[in-house]
């Protein structure tokens, strides 16, 4: 994974990718400042990820993931964003924030309440690097996540409301835990990857 990335470039990429994700599209207030709101949200996410050593950037810079080690405590990141007044004013607006809280509480309840695990909060691939490209950015990122999971012997949890993304997760080896009809009307998929046990002789 790339270590010498340009933070501002990554923030721009995340802001772009967020506009394809149903949850972020829902919570970001739709007004004349929409582009600035996505940028503000992306900056918050990237800076938080850097602080927690949770940012993964592919070697080509076109794949970005935020991959947290969790301890089962806390309400989750979207809920944190909604609850943070500064973020609410700059990103969601109060009305949208309050509306999103109920569904985010349910989403958080699908992950463990205790014990450590890994949580893929965000994973985006820029359009030109998706699919069967020669550099295989998504596969290399998946391999890095699985390497971390195996080394730490911790499962990975993820959720998505994009069906083709859920199919990709399952193709990679994630197990589908649950489908849930989101209040918006679409389905949310909850997934888990369990790493193979370390060879005791290694």
Descriptive overview:
The chain is α+β, with helices and mostly antiparallel strands and 202 residues long. It has helices at 7-18, 22-27, 34-51, 77-83, 85-92, 94-109, 137-152, 163-172; strands spanning 55-57, 63-70, 117-125, 156-160, 175-181, 187-193. The chain has a six-stranded mixed beta sheet with strand order 1-2-3-4-6-5, sandwiched between helices. A hairpin with a 5-residue loop joins strand 1 (55-57) and strand 2. Helix 5 (85-92) packs across helix 6. The protein is globular, with a radius of gyration of 17 Å. The mean pLDDT is 84.
Describe the strand arrangement of the main beta sheet, using strand numbers.
1-2-3-4-6-5
Shape: globular
Please state the average pLDDT score: 84
Beta strand count: 6
Count of DSSP helices? 8
Q: Would you identify the regions where 5 or more consecutive residues have pLDDT less than 50? A: none
Helix and strand content put the structural class at alpha+beta
Tell me the helix content.
40-55%
């Amino acid at each position: 994974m790339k270590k010498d990335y340009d933070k501002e470039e990554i923030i721009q990429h995340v802001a772009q990718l967020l506009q394809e994700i149903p949850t972020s599209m829902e919570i970001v207030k739709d007004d004349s400042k929409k582009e600035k709101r996505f940028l503000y949200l992306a900056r918050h996410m990237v800076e938080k990820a850097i602080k927690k050593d949770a940012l993964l950037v592919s070697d080509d810079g076109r794949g970005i993931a935020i991959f947290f080690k969790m301890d089962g405590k806390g309400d989750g990141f979207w809920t944190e964003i909604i609850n943070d007044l500064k973020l609410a004013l700059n990103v969601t607006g109060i009305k949208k924030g309050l509306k999103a809280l109920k569904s985010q509480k349910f989403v958080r309840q699908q992950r463990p309440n205790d014990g450590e695990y890994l949580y893929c909060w965000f994973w985006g691939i820029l359009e030109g690097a998706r699919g069967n490209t020669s550099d295989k950015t998504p596969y290399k990122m998946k391999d890095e996540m699985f390497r971390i999971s195996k080394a730490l012997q911790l499962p990975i949890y993820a959720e998505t409301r994009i069906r083709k993304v859920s199919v990709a997760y399952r193709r990679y080896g994630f197990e589908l835990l649950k489908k849930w009809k989101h209040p918006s009307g679409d389905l949310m998929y909850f997934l888990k990857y369990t790493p193979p046990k370390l060879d005791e002789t290694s």
